[in-house]
TrEMBL record:
Species the sequence originates in: Myxococcus fulvus
Protein name stated in the entry: Uncharacterized protein
InterPro entries for the chain: Peptidase_S1_PA, Peptidase_S1_PA_chymotrypsin, TRYPSIN_SER
PROSITE patterns in the record: TRYPSIN_SER (PS00135)
Amino acid sequence: MESRVAAPGVCSRPTGRESPVVVGTNVMRQQAILRVVLGSAALCLGGFGGAAWAGGPTSESASSTSAARPRTLDDALLEVERSAPGFAGMYHDEKGRLVVRLVNATAAPAARSAITSVFGADKIPAAGVVTEPATRTFSQLKAIQERLTPEVLALPGAVFTDVDEKSNRVAIGVERAESRARVEWTLGRLAVDRDAVDVVEVGPIRPASVQSGWTPVAGGLQIETPGKYCTLGFAALQGGTLGFVTNSHCTTVQGGVESTLAYQAVYPWQVGTETTDPFYATGGSCPAGRRCRYSDSAFFRADAAISSRVVQTPGAFNLNISAWHEVTGKLLYPSQGQTVFKTGRTSGTTSGTIEWACATVNGGGVPDTFYCNYIATSGAQNGAGGDSGSPVYIFTANGVALTGLMWGAGSNPWNFAFAPLGGVEFELGIVPYCWGNVGC
């Protein structure tokens, strides 16, 4: 087997399994200035908790997901509405302002107070807050979405459902125009107010399938699992165990633990062993013929040195590494209109604006459905095969804040789909491994 050493700072593409890229011992030693010592670290557990709801797996659903569930963005928005009746949701506009939609304009002061109470004071951006009128409250739209989701997402060609706060409607994504007729027929049968629903053509979001070696390993670098090239998402702590997160579909069998081995960049440098990958649930509110989870994620115990950083490239499809960013925080559930970034082994660092937030999303060509996932769109291609598992993040003053794990990409418009960090933390029982060698 040929062994080749990649130039420092450059991601190279393996030409095939017969000629893998392997990191030489000297290179590994020279790059050890980034090494993070394995061992126990202090944990700062964070996240949402809450009761069961109609938009997730029920206790009767099979396997891993019990009545417990993560508290999602939509749950938080419903809480805001309880304190500010008439609240219809919020999003970020192109000027960076937080746009608050209200059925009753007099609720503006109460809404701002409730947003600060539920999300924290930092949810109010420096650009300020503006209000827009709305026809339906957030809870009214959420009820419509929950009613139609199980049947609509069981239809061929259906992609997602979402409460679209920007339009003050429920959005239904379909792969192509031919899929509209089935959706329209179903909406009529369910007697859903047609004026409350938009059907949009987005194309399928396909799980990204699966290049240079580095030590320690970090988020955004290529990993290899049996038969697949994927991307390492981010370092994480599960109790006292240090490891990393990538997609469940990058393991030997999606859902369930088979102790899949991961290599970076390719075999034979083993860097992790799969230890947590919850089974997918069926039944209950999971659409017929599909299996459901909150995130396409799996946890691997670290078998090599691992860093709390994520890598950045100069731009789309430029695979040279231009920066190593410390993970200094996290955002469990971003909002519609925010710009998020991801780094993957195929398309490098790209970005997208969150078009649909906390949507129920079907994987194209596979029977998987994910609750409260996100779709970030762009005017240019921002994802590709092999980017599966990419860390999704936002830039901060002193590094980046993790906010999700990419699992798929699509076109019409160009987009990537990701599970929010809140869902990943809930299903895997992890927290990100952050700057200072602690959980955050």
